[in-house]
From TrEMBL:
Family annotation (InterPro entries): Myb_DNA-bind_4 (IPR044822)
Keyword Mitochondrion: no
Protein name: Myb/SANT-like DNA-binding domain-containing protein
Gene3D superfamilies in alphabetical order: Homeodomain-like
Coiled-coil residues: 262-294
Start and end residues of each Myb/SANT-like DNA-binding domain: 65-149
Keyword Coiled coil in annotation: yes
Signal sequence bounds: none
């Protein structure tokens, strides 16, 4: 019909999947009653066959359950993609940002399979956003510092001044499966304090990203500049990483020495302030004695 447009239903379902990966990481996954893949709403169902028709073949993923080990592995995999995208604007990072989000979740699922855990891309996405939502809700109720203290010592919750209904919500969040508060905090704060580096896992992540169709685009500029053996290039990267860590250690040492020096200066200033106060009191005492002597002399003169 003239003036109207026809939209393929299949295309309509997946047209919102192709968003920058960092934008998807900033979104909260929907509630558990209505699982979604980005903006495509999937009807809630307990029938695995129906979900398979909607999502496609997910292999034996339904037979696995998430554990702390598999959830921590998932966060580590996603953190390496985030690190690559947030690098200093090189060609590889720019092309990685343009990769369709569905291909990134496919790569994440493939890395999990290489480690022996068969989870579909949709299951990986849902699990990640469930953990992220739990973390954000906990921090929203308690604040970043208090939530960290309560996670490490839940007994502290009883001593907090807050409504009982909020305490009950916090207890439910603390009882969530695979809370991984510290790991999610490290990911969202872009540090690796609770996400130890695994070079083999990092290689696996980029290898699977390449397999998703962008391998030639990701390494094209590097191959045009230098054609070196892959192991040699990797050794150079590791050597550069060690140099950076050494510089960071030197900077931390300099900062510590600066803090110690400032502390000594602060102590000297405090000591001088006390000495000045002591001199002021001594002068006040002498002035009082002189005044008293003058008063006594005036009394004798009057007599």
């Amino acid at each position: 019909m003239e003036g109207s447009s026809f939209i393929d239903p299949t295309q309509a379902q997946y047209q919102n999947l192709y968003q920058p990966f960092e934008q998807v990481m900033g979104q909260d996954h929907p509630s558990q009653g209505e699982p979604q893949i980005n903006n495509f709403t999937m009807p809630a169902s307990n029938n695995f066959d129906e979900l398979t028709i909607i999502l496609g073949n997910v292999g034996n993923a339904s037979h696995l359950q998430w554990t702390h080990e598999t959830a921590r592995l998932l966060v580590s995999i996603i953190s390496y993609i985030g690190e690559a995208e947030s690098s200093d604007g090189n060609a590889s990072s720019r092309k990685l940002k343009l990769m369709p989000i569905i291909q990134k979740w496919n790569a994440i699922s493939n890395v999990m399979k290489e480690r022996g855990y068969t989870f579909s891309p949709q299951q990986c996405e849902k699990k990640f956003f469930d953990m992220k939502r739990t973390y954000n809700e906990l921090v929203g109720l308690l604040g970043r510092i208090k939530s960290c203290e309560v996670v490490e010592n839940p007994i502290l919750l009883d001593s907090l001044m807050m409504p009982a209904i909020q305490k009950e919500e916090v207890r439910k969040l603390l009882g969530s499966e695979q809370l991984l508060y510290h790991e999610m905090g490290s990911f969202l704060n872009a540090d690796r304090m609770y996400l130890p580096r695994d070079l083999e896992l990092r290689r696996s992540v980029f290898r699977n990203l390449d397999k998703e169709g962008n391998r030639k685009e990701l390494v094209q500029n590097q191959n045009q500049i230098k054609r070196k053996d892959l192991s040699t290039r990797w050794n150079e990267v590791e050597e550069k990483s060690l140099e950076i860590q050494e510089k960071m250690l030197q900077m931390e040492k300099a900062r510590y020495e600066w803090m110690c020096a400032n502390r000594d200066e602060d102590l000297k200033v405090a000591k001088m302030r006390l000495e000045n106060e002591n001199l002021r009191l001594e002068n006040a005492r002498l002035a009082y004695q002189l005044k008293r002597q003058k008063t006594v002399l005036n009394v004798h003169d009057n007599n």
